[in-house]
Specification:
With 342 residues, the chain is an alpha/beta fold. The protein is 29% helix and 24% strand.
């Protein structure tokens, strides 16, 4: 996004935590916590896609669900500023307020095979939010579902078919149509293409990008690796063991990474051009256990730049240069390698 005036903030998250208790014994005594989301702060602007990347178990899916309170966060602040209506303090919403918020903020699931009810037709699946929110019924409901099907590239003559009659890509289109039914402003897309064939992935990514600009949507786009993120995001956030380690524009993060974990993720992106290829950084050791994370910087046991301070002190989350946030004690002195964007 190169607009002179940045778009207003749609969602602001401050110090969000989600700790799952570890219970033991008949009395279910709490003996510890899994720190799935550990003091995360971020923001998403209107008409913007923030890519969220991290390895399995980094907490990105939990974070996405916490933003919509599909999972109850443990603590922190989530403010939602929709175009229409008042700003919402998401953590303090009652059941009615949450229902209203969910008409403006929706989730697209990772697996289009398990996320659609096999006993319902496309009309019932896509029309369900409209019925639940009492937005449309009868002929109007059918018309709205037909419009949504066309919007996502599905043929309306298939409206009375069941999910099993569709391919993976078409099922994901049904899931997207359902998410769009209530005209949301914000969508959490949780690895929406990772369960699809590579040949279909680009079609769904293009569809999401077209919908974003056509409908002025904002996305939190969750992905496993940086290659997909690069093509769909304006800004990127990187998570490691429940913590945010870096966030910036695609250009900042790819060309000038400031966290050693981001540098390692970038080195794993395949590129056919030998001049642009960087030496693959193999991370030693295992991803830290979020139930028993290391002291200091959680990344220190695997970081090739770690110094003594890293073992004892948690690096603060700071805005190193405007718009570029990082949590690394050595971000100012390290000269990390990125990859040039074409
Ligand atoms: Fe590596 Fe230390 Fe930076 Fe953590 S704080 S990423 S261990 S250099």
């Amino acid at each position: 996004m190169n607009a002179v005036e940045p778009e207003p903030i749609l969602l602001r998250v401050e110090h969000l935590k989600k700790y799952f208790p570890i219970e033991k014994g008949f009395l279910k005594t709490v003996v510890g916590h899994v720190r799935a989301v550990d003091d995360v702060s971020l923001y998403i602007r209107r008409n913007e896609t923030l890519g969220l990347v991290g390895e399995s178990g980094s907490g990105k899916t939990t974070l996405g669900r916490c933003l919509l309170r599909a999972i109850e966060p443990t603590s922190g602040k989530i403010m939602f500023y929709p175009k229409s209506g008042e700003s919402l303090d998401v953590m303090s919403l009652d059941a009615r307020g949450l229902k209203e918020m969910r008409s403006k903020a929706q989730l697209v699931f990772q697996n289009p095979y398990s996320s659609l009810d096999p006993r319902k037709t496309v009309l019932q699946i896509v029309g369900e939010p409209l019925t639940l929110h009492k937005v449309a019924k009868g002929d109007e409901l059918v018309e709205r579902v037909q419009d949504l099907m066309q919007l996502v590239g599905l043929e309306i003559k298939h409206m009375n078919r069941y999910p099993h009659a569709f391919s993976g890509g078409q099922r994901q289109r049904i899931g997207i149509a359902r998410a769009l039914a209530l005209k949301p402003e914000f969508i959490v897309a949780d690895e929406p293409v990772s369960a699809l064939d590579v040949s279909i992935q680009a079609q769904i990514l293009n569809l999401l990008q077209d919908l974003r600009s056509e409908l002025n949507l904002s996305f939190l786009f969750i992905a496993h690796g940086l290659s997909v993120i690069k093509h769909v995001s304006h800004r990127v956030a990187v998570m490691y063991v429940g913590k945010m380690v870096e966030m910036g524009t695609v250009g900042q993060l790819f060309e000038n990474p400031r966290h050693p974990y981001t540098e390692a993720l970038l080195s794993a992106i395949p590129t056919p051009d030998p001049d642009r290829r960087m030496e693959r950084i193999i991370l030693e050791g295992e991803v830290a256990n979020p139930a028993n994370p290391p002291s200091g910087c959680y990344f220190h046991p695997r970081c090739r730049y770690a110094v003594d301070l890293c073992k004892h002190e948690t690096p603060p989350w700071v805005e190193d240069v405007p718009g570029h946030f990082v949590a690394c004690h050595r971000s100012q002195e390290l000269n990390l390698r990125g990859i040039p964007l074409e």
